[in-house]
Amino acid sequence: MPSNLPGGLGYALREWMRPPRPHGEVIEGRTVSFLELFYDLVFVVFVAQVANSLATHPNWAGVRGFAVLFTLVWYTWLNGTLYHDLHGSDDGRSRTYMFVQMLLISLMSVYAGEATVSSDAGRHFAILLSILLLWLLYQWWVVRRQDDPAMAAVSTPYFIGLAVILALVATSIAVEDPATRLVLWAVGAAGAIIVPLAGSVWRHDVLAQGFRISESTAERFALFTIIVLGQEVVSVVDGLTKADGGWATKGVGWLCLGIAFGIWWNYFDFVGRRTPRPGLGVRGLWLVTHLPLSMSVAAIGAGMVSLIEHAADDRTPTATSWLIGASLALLCVSLAVIVALMPDRPGALFVPYSLVAAALLSLVVAALHPRPWLLAATLLVLLTLVWVEAFVRHAWLGDPFVDDDAL
Fold this sequence. Notes:
The structure is a single chain. With about 400 residues, the chain is mostly helical. It has two domains: about 30-210, no CATH class; about 215-400, no CATH class. About 75% of the residues lie in helices and about 0% in strands. The chain contains 15 helices and no strands. It has helices spanning about 10-15, 35-55, 60-85, 90-110, 120-145, 150-155, 155-170, 180-200, 205-210, 215-240, 245-270, 280-310, 320-340, 350-370, 370-395. Helix 2 runs parallel beside helix 4 (about 90-110). The radius of gyration is 22 Å and the shape is globular.
């Protein structure tokens, strides 16, 4: 039968480059696309670069630069992710938006390793990040232009916040001193955390209707987490490749893999692809708390390279011990907050508390900086105990531990 739809190249191009979906027009039951997976993998290339730099310099200066760069780029990932989930489609406009971002992130990755210490690398990084932020502003402005007046007015503070971050990064282009440039980036990174939090605590019915954590959004965060965990495994393999290959080295490497597996078990059994409870403030906190969670996973992987390298030492180097122990503590606290924001599950009632206890004990172990194998084994035991407590509690209550709906 002949189609009643208009034909011709002009119509096809208009459909291919159609306007973005307006706020509130959610695609129910949407699954993450191949393009989104490709997009996430490109961002993890950047994570690998900054994690490798941290592995080379597992000290306070390295941690500081790593945290600032990770936060700024994670913020761009968050913007791109939310934009596509709220307004994107499988069309030419959405593909163009995402591939431009992927191009810029790929180029930024070239300079990421030296961006905080080299004036030239930092300048190139700042130029590319400024272009990326401008591109994101344009994407959201296109949506704002077609929004109804109420929604457009609500989004004004967000645009102001993004513009301030852009101004700080753009200003850093002309700065010669890497330390001064890093301060400007750090202020911008702080703004990247404050902007979504401030927007979420501003109670507004229109914003609550236009912004929600869909199942596909939760799936994107879960997939990003698992990809960063994969990078942690790469770090272990990298450490084993560079080390002497003795039994002490192999044992520490296996324990490090166990830590990565333990993180996976705790995150995906307690959070997985589940959406948080209703509420604008809950949504904002759920989003932002995934930043320290992802960052800590990458930092743990960076520390594992040094831990494996020093596997045969009598004591773990102080900087390495603190990097891994404090990062795991941050991960546990972040996961505790996220679990507390999820719908109530009686079997997971004590999980936030056991995670906080594991975080405190991780800091104690880090301060003691014992032998590398003992440090890794202790951290693995702490993660295991958190999971075992929840498993036993589910068994006592007669509740299924694995939620089939979240598979």
